[in-house]
Design a protein that fits this description.
Layout: H1 2-12, E1 16-21, H2 27-38, E2 41-44, H3 45-52, H4 57-64, H5 71-78, E3 92-95, H6 104-113, E4 118-125, H7 128-141, H8 153-176, E5 180-184, H9 189-207
Parallel strand pairs: 1-3, 1-4, 2-3, 4-5
Helix pairs in contact: 1-9, 2-9
């Protein structure tokens, strides 16, 4: 695996890898580990927006209902991160940055302008049934804190619907651009991570 990681680092430079998936697919778990492995900074639009909702009741209402943040709100809060001076010399691992159809273009433009061109996207594949099972387990364990978008299964259902209707077209755009690697996310954390590294190494080889 070390040889593959070296290959990925050389290919990635200060570029970005964007990780997508249904709720409970493991985006942040994979993203944080990937960032640590590659010496990258981790940037989660979900974490940033959930912090912002504390000061924005309208945003809090949308997120609490399981809806995606309005595009203009997303752009104003998230896109400036790509040009932050403290991130300039690092690659970025993104967790679902640009989840609404039409946001992928501005995200790619902002990333490129900030020196963090999007080099790859990862789709962590789980079924909707599996997402609901993982929600049940998480509620029993209480391992995700007091997230407003995790309160009820009806909110989860809406989040899944938002992903299918609004985010899958974004993912298809990346697929058409040859930037998508699809990974089965049903194994152990180590197995999923190993497959992510394998797929990124393939992209690095193809695009070097």
């Amino acid at each position: 695996m070390d040889q593959k990681i070296t290959l990925i680092k050389e290919w990635l430079g200060t570029g970005s890898i964007n990780v997508f998936g249904l709720p409970f697919s493991g985006k942040d778990t994979v993203g944080v580990r990937l960032a640590e492995t590659l010496g990258a900074k981790f940037l989660s639009s979900g974490l940033i927006l959930r912090a912002a909702e504390k000061e924005d009741s309208s945003l809090a209402k949308e997120i609490g209902a399981g809806n995606l943040a309005p595009t203009e709100t997303f752009r104003s809060i998230i896109l400036p991160y790509f040009s932050r001076e403290e991130l300039a010399s690092f690659p970025l691992v993104l967790s679902s940055v640009g989840r609404w159809e039409g946001e992928e273009g501005p995200v790619m433009d902002a990333a490129r302008a900030g020196g963090h061109e999007i080099k790859a996207t990862i789709l962590l594949n789980i079924s909707e049934e599996e997402a609901r099972k993982r929600w049940d387990v998480s509620k029993q364990l209480g391992d995700r804190g007091e997230r407003s978008d995790d309160r009820e299964k009806s909110i989860l259902d809406n989040r899944i619907s938002e992903f299918v209707q609004k985010t899958m077209p974004v993912i298809n755009t990346y697929r058409e651009l040859g930037l998508l690697a699809s990974v089965k996310a049903m194994g152990t954390r180590d197995e999923v991570f190993a497959e992510v590294i394998d797929e990124l190494a393939k992209l690095a080889t193809q695009n070097n």
